[in-house]
Amino acid sequence: MGIEFRKDIVTLIPRASSPHKRFGELGFEEIRNLSQYLTKEERLVPYSDMYDQEEAISPEQRAVIEGPPMDVRDAFSLEDYGAHMNQAGNCKVENGYCVLPDGVTYSAVRIEKPGQTNEKMDFFNREFGKTGALAYKLWCPGSHYFQYTDGAIEDFGYGLMNMKMVSDDPVFSNGIDVRLLGIDLEKVEERDPACRWIAGNYWQNYPVLEHGIAEKPIDIVIVNYMRQTPDGREHRIRLYAGVAVKDGKLVRTGLPEDLSPLECARCNMRHLMLEYGNEARIVNQFWERYGKKPD
């Protein structure tokens, strides 16, 4: 059972493309025939135009994507996550990528979410993209294909992935035990009074190959750290590829031989920038159109 830190905050609740489809229920051909583009029916939804916006990446983030990897000395392992992240100040590098000495990739992303409130998130979770795959596609246009009740199908930039979220809860409400990462739940607020949410998920991502789905997954752990700011929220994300959670322990599992660890780290970082930068944008846009009360 996943254990997280959460205080007085509403966060995004992903909406499954089909309310009954679980990981493993789509075959290879069905997955290959999926499209990341909107269907004619989805285009009829008034806010489908959100799909056509420019990428939600700042010039500063673009420079990091196109630039060299960060100094590995400014990164840290999952075991050291709590010591580096649960503090009132930011890390030296909040947007960057590298490969750790043990071969695990490290991707760091910081997303500012001005104007994001519990009221807006409640409304968004309740009203946005109620049917079909629309909500998932609009979340990260061009990269999101389908969402199971316990997984997803996405393209991180190095090929399509059939993704299973390993959790006791099939509705995305639980993930890993963040205490594995050096988080002392009793001291979170003392160390960082602005912290509102720390949660992690363990994914097994199976590459979709030309003639089938790979038997061995790419193991990924993603950890979210959310702070309250004067004008909204700050979302800090760390993604580690090549590490799994097994029997309550972190285990290094490596990456496929044909996948460059450094390119994997860079693509994972870019994907998170796109995904959560766009979430910050469309939550506010949807509120302005449909949720905001007249003055």
Structural summary, described in words:
This protein has 295 residues and is of the alpha+beta class. Helix content is 25%, strand content 25%. It contains 8 helices and 11 strands. The strands form 2 sheets. Strands 1, 2, 3, 4, 5, 6, 7, 8 and 9 form a 9-stranded antiparallel sheet that branches. The relative contact order is 0.23. Mean pLDDT is 93; it is low at 168-173.
Features:
alpha+beta, 9-stranded antiparallel beta sheet, 295 residues, 25% helix, globular, 8 helices, two-stranded antiparallel sheet
What is the string of SSEs from the N terminus onward?
EHHHHEEHHEEEHEEEEEH
**Helix run count:** 8
What low-confidence regions span 5 or more consecutive residues with pLDDT below 50? 168-173
- The fraction of residues in strands falls at 25-35%
Q: Structural class, please?
A: alpha+beta
Number of strands: 11
Largest sheet, in brief, is: 9 strands, antiparallel
Can you summarize this structure?
The chain is α+β, with helices and mostly antiparallel strands and 295 residues long. Helix content is 25%, strand content 25%.
Give the SSE map.
Elements: E1 5-6, H1 28-32, H2 40-43, H3 59-66, H4 81-85, E2 96-99, E3 105-114, H5 118-127, H6 134-139, E4 144-147, E5 151-155, E6 160-166, H7 188-191, E7 195-207, E8 218-229, E9 232-241, E10 243-246, E11 249-252, H8 261-291
Antiparallel strand pairs: 1-7, 2-3, 3-9, 4-5, 5-6, 6-7, 7-8, 8-9, 10-11
Helix pairs in contact: 5-8
